[in-house]
Specification:
Layout lengths: L12 H9 L6 E5 L3 H16 L4 E2 L9 E5 L2 H10 L6 E3 L18 E4 L15 H8 L5 H20 L4 H10 L1 E4 L2 E4 L13 E6 L2 E4 L2
Parallel strand pairs: 1-2, 1-3, 3-4, 4-5
Antiparallel strand pairs: 5-8, 6-7, 8-9
C-alpha cells in the first residue's frame, strides 16, 4: 500500500498554524466524532496545538471565548457546527468539501481542512496539469476526485520506474520517489511508508463559497 494522502494525524496543522500566526491563545475545544479516523484527527490536533503552546480542552470550555475544531464524520461535523454557538473560530473536517455549504444553515466564516483545493498544488512534474483535469472534470472537483487521479498517475509512474508491477519493485520505486502531481507534493518515509510530502489545505467559507486561506 502506497499512501498519497496526508495522514489523519496531521489534518489540523493548517488551522493550528492559522491561530498561532494570529497570536491567538484562546482555548481550542476539540470535538471528536466516532471511528478511528476521527480519533486520529483529534489526537493529532491536540498534539499540534499543545506543541504550538495553545491551551486545549476536550470538554466545552468555561472560558468566555474559545475556538472549535470538529473532527468527525460529515454528518457529525454538520451537527456540531449547526448546534454549537462558538465565540471564536470554527474549523471542521467536513467543511473541506463543497457539500458542507448545502448542509448547514450558514457556512460563512467556517474553516475547513482538506487534502486539496484549486490552486493549492505546485506545478505537476508528472501527469496532467491541474487546469486540464478541472476542465475535463466539468466543474470544480472536491479533493477525493483529485486524489484518485493522483493515485492513478503515481501508480502508472511507479510501474514505469520499476519496469513492471511486482509489489516489491513498485514499493522500492515509490519509496525513492520525490515528485509533484496536480494533487501536490509526494514523498514517503521509506522506513514507515508514511506520506511526508503532501500537506492539508485550509479553506474558509465566504458568501460565494469556499476559498483558500493560506
Amino acid at each position: 500500500m502506497v499512501p498519497v494522502l496526508t495522514p489523519a494525524s496531521r489534518y489540523a496543522e493548517p488551522f493550528v498554524r492559522h491561530l498561532v500566526r494570529g497570536g491567538d491563545s484562546r482555548p481550542l475545544w476539540i470535538v471528536q466524532g466516532t471511528g478511528r479516523f476521527a480519533r486520529e484527527v483529534a489526537l493529532g490536533a491536540e498534539r499540534r496545538a499543545r506543541i504550538a503552546g495553545l491551551p486545549v480542552t476536550r470538554q466545552r470550555p468555561r472560558d468566555p471565548s474559545w475556538h472549535l475544531f470538529s473532527a468527525g464524520s460529515f454528518d457529525e461535523d454538520v451537527t456540531t457546527v449547526t448546534h454549537t454557538k462558538v465565540p471564536g473560530a470554527v474549523c471542521a473536517v467536513a467543511a473541506g468539501v463543497r457539500a458542507f455549504g448545502e448542509s448547514v444553515p450558514d457556512p460563512r466564516g467556517v474553516y475547513g481542512v482538506g487534502q486539496w483545493f484549486p490552486g493549492s498544488g505546485a506545478e505537476a512534474a508528472i501527469g496532467c496539469a491541474e487546469a486540464d483535469f478541472v476542465a475535463a472534470y466539468g466543474g470544480p472537483p472536491d479533493y477525493p476526485a483529485v486524489q484518485a487521479a493522483a493515485a492513478a498517475i503515481l501508480a502508472v509512474h511507479c510501474a514505469e520506474l520499476a519496469g513492471g508491477t511486482a509489489p516489491d519493485d513498485l514499493w522500492r520505486a515509490a519509496a525513492r520517489l520525490r515528485t509533484t502531481t496536480l494533487y501536490g507534493a509526494f514523498a514517503l518515509d521509506p522506513g514507515t511508508g508514511v506520506q511526508t510530502g503532501h500537506r492539508t489545505v485550509l479553506t474558509r467559507w465566504e458568501p460565494g463559497g469556499p476559498v483558500s486561506y493560506e
